[in-house]
Amino acid sequence: ATDTPAQPLSLGFESIAGSKTDGCVVAQGYTAQVLAPWGTPLNTLANPWQSDGSNSSEDQANSVGMHHDGMHFFPINGSSEDGLLAINFEYIDQSALHPDGPTRDAEGRRPAEEVRKEINAHGAGVIRITKVNGRWQVVDNDPLNRRFTTASLMDLSGPLRGTAHVRTKFSKNGTQTRGTNNNCGNGYTPWGTYLTCEENWPNVFLNTSTPLPEDQRRIGIATSRTSYGWESAAGDSTEVNDEFTRFNLASTAASAEEDYRNEASTYGYIVEINPFDASSRAVKRTALGRFRHEGCWPILPVEGQPVTFYMGDDAQNEYLYKFVSAALWTAADATPSDPLATGAKYMDEGTLYVARFDADGTGRWLPLTVDSSTTDGRTLGSIYGDLATIILNTRGAADALGATPMDRPEWTAVNPLNGDVYLTLTNNSSRTEANAANPRTRNLNGHIIRWHDAEDRVSFTWDIFVFGSDAAADPTTTNFSGLTDLNQFASPDGLSFDSRGILWIETDNGGNAVASATNDQVLAVIPTTLLDASGNQATIRAENQTALRRFFVGPNGCEVTGLAFTPDHKTMFVNIQHPGNWPYSTDATEVTPAGTSVRPRASTVAIQRVDGGDIGVA
Ligand code: FEO
Ligand code: CA
Ligand code: CA
Ligand code: CA
């Protein structure tokens, strides 16, 4: 299925044992430093982080957000010691955010200041970081530091822009919205912008009306209670323009331009950010579909060819998508004068596809276009009308085309050496019916699938790269990849190649035998060493079992998220999301002493070699 050039690259560290402590563990010869934890001030409007949870919503709007997830390092002038770290802040731990957790008044309403702080802890950020004497630090008050929250003004672009679907009281012409939420995985573009992806945003909108609009039913908008209760918040003297009631999708007025029935239709997108211009607005690129977006990863662009992005929809039995630009790549666009205009060129017009994996090891990309044929002999146009409505109903349109339901598609990654694409399928406890690409029912451990697009861009070949499992499981039913104590893993989630071709895998696991053995972790593998000479169904086999190596283990309670690299390969950044009792100090490996309780702070961790060498290799 693949042709891979011979290459000398090899992993230069020994796999580490599993760990279950309130500290990080990293391979021998490496250091791990806490960088930019939740609450770190980014400018002079923020007070320093307080360990009692007493920082204000205004502090939070000007500080690092909570629950770091996807991220990307943007070098400044090509430097590997000075750059911008763009980071997602996926969600919050209310008990850590507030002094004594979330509160409600006698009528059950959330206080405005608490809700504002929660809104400001979500979203994304751009943070200037520099390496000084070998240690990374945040550049406080750098003019490029900025935050995007669930309240930030953003533009809508692509097919939904200006349509009746997205007109609200706030934007009567349907061209703008406020905020981005539950930003999980990420991407970047070949023209130097950051992509942040809206995943579990349906949980913050409430719609108690019946029946729900079909797109809201299919995406899972909350119908009885929301995770945070923002829509219930009492207004106060600073409330402007329905800043909380917009999360309630009730139709209260005569027209959509006078209420917020359409507010949720402005969420569920890939959002583009220009990290190098702090005055620019984020743009929601609606052409890339509306679902629970996990990540958005580009191919390495080829002159004269379209730009392609791969995207997972992370929920049980949802789908894998790709977007192929209408515009053809020209290398002059790698350094544009107006990056968001270049974004419009490549991301506002093109074709969205959903994947069908066939049992013979081939697959088909099914276009979500008005002319596309459904499995029952209609067209998407006959069901939905126009492209904007198809995109609003992306999941329903993909159902109609006969896409393959997957075991929770999380991140995609593109091998820079050969163009193979990898996808983490994190787990699926509810799968009762196996298919070739998701062959285990009640898949508690997850797997990683890969494919290679054919030149026609609508067909591909695929195989399963590795199956998660505990080491002790039956190799004929579960541990197909022959994992051992030194590389057993489950629930793969974050996934990225570095530019040399090492694949880094992160886990978001719990509640199984692997979780009993180790906290969440980062593993590395060089896939070219794993290819089965016969082609399809190449897995990590017994003779190759040391090829997959455990590099890093996080503290109790966390998942390990986000992967970013400096161009010189001397620093790798990962994120610790929702830790339980960490960090104890700026050394990420220092274990919080027994009997000591710290207010947990999600954080980036900067990993370097003690000898200053290149990460991962000898
Ligand atoms: Fe936010 Fe699918 O993980
Ligand atoms: Ca994830
Ligand atoms: Ca996950
Ligand atoms: Ca998660």
Notes on the protein architecture:
With 618 residues, the chain is mainly β. The chain starts with 24 loop residues before the first strand and ends in a 9-residue tail after the last strand. It has a domain at 206-266. Strand 12 (270-273) and strand 13 form a beta hairpin. The strands form six sheets. Strands 14-15-17-18-19-24-23-22-21 form a nine-stranded antiparallel β-sheet. A six-stranded mixed β-sheet has the order 9-8-13-12-11-10, covered by helices on one side. The protein has helices at 57-61, 94-97, 112-121, 214-219, 339-347, 380-384, 387-392, 394-401, 513-517, and strands at residues 25-26, 30-35, 68-75, 82-89, 123-132, 135-138, 146-148, 153-157, 176-178, 183-188, 194-198, 270-273, 282-285, 297-298, 306-312, 316-318, 320-328, 350-357, 362-367, 406-407, 409-414, 421-425, 447-453, 459-467, 492-497, 503-507, 521-525, 549-553, 559-565, 572-577, 603-609. The chain contains nine helices and 31 strands. The radius of gyration is 23 Å and the shape is globular. It is 9% helix and 28% strand. This is dTDP-glucose 4,6-dehydratase. InterPro entries: PhoX.
